[in-house]
Fold this protein.
Amino acid sequence: MNHKDLLNELKIDRSQRETHRAGPPGWLWPVLGAVLIVLLAGAGAWYFLGNKPVEVQTATAVSPASNPDAGAVLQATGYVTARRQATVSAQITGTLTEVLIEEGDRVQKGQVLARLDDSAYKASLVATQAQAAAAHALVTQLQAQSVQNERDAQRLEALVARGLVSRQDAEQARTQVNSIRAQLAAQQRQAKAADAQVNVAEVNFDYTVVRAPFNGVITTKDAQVGEIISPLSAGGGFTRTGVGTIVDMDSLEVDVDVNEAYIGRVKPNMPAEAILDAYPDWRIPAHVIAIVPAADRGKATVKVRVALENKDGRIVPDMGVRVSFLEQQAASASQAMAPKGVLVPAKAIVQREGHDIVFVLAGDKVQQRAVTPAAQNYGDMRLVPERVQAGDTVVITPPDNLNDGMRVAVAAKTQD
């Protein structure tokens, strides 16, 4: 083979070169792009949705000995009420010239709360006092005249005995004595009547001052200076019927409505414990005062009066309160019979595949634990003998999509 033949063999066929340059077909690139987009969307959905924590509410498992409702026979809700409160008003109609109270003021019995315009009553009092003074002055005059007439009559009777004057003169003098005595008696009665008028005027004048009927706290201020106040509702909205409301804080107690199906469990003087909605960690010792012998047909409840054994400035009327009626037993006996295990809210126990399950918080994830709750209820709590420890945080009303090991975000801790 010569040199020319070798060069010819090194030449590349043009048809083969074009085929090599063509590469993959044109439809393949759009397909690859669509697959890549789907993969990226799936990865993003898994990251943002599958890894998103589930929002839950939690509570703390407590020991039966420390649970306030562990020995409760029954629980009921109600409100703080005052057995003694009054809307203070005047006993006469008049215009307010002073109002000396504000909401929250503590007042003592007899303390002046307001004053009415007293000009007319003061003038009436002065007039009756003057009339009484005149009546008493006339009594004094008649008394002096009666004494003088008595002396004159005695002298004339002595002269008659000596024959110096006629008996007729002595009789006339005695008649004058009796007449003055009658006038004196009548005038004394007039003076007493005038004194009674003075007393009436003084009472009316005193009515212009409004005083506290008992020790308490002002809860409302209902009138202002310049307004007309009246013990009766007169004049529409232009007349006030009270200056303010005073509440005796020492008379505060709790009224609760007990379902009539359970009223047999409540007895007078039964120990109880009250928890205010405003202060859920403050447990107030209490006891039953009385069971009101009347049922509410609409609500099927019976009212029970409960006394608060500890009074405090934080307790105010109309506060919401929950009362636990307690069993009457010795503390040592209750501790000896304290059940084994912990108490969790009944809503924390759910069914999963035919088993009772509790979700316990461990960091930001939950652990699923199978439990066997005791048959006895403790109010709205259930006793879990094992698998849960006191102080563990459990999920209340777990959602259906919550599973073991999932991340959670605590929305609110509803119960301690």
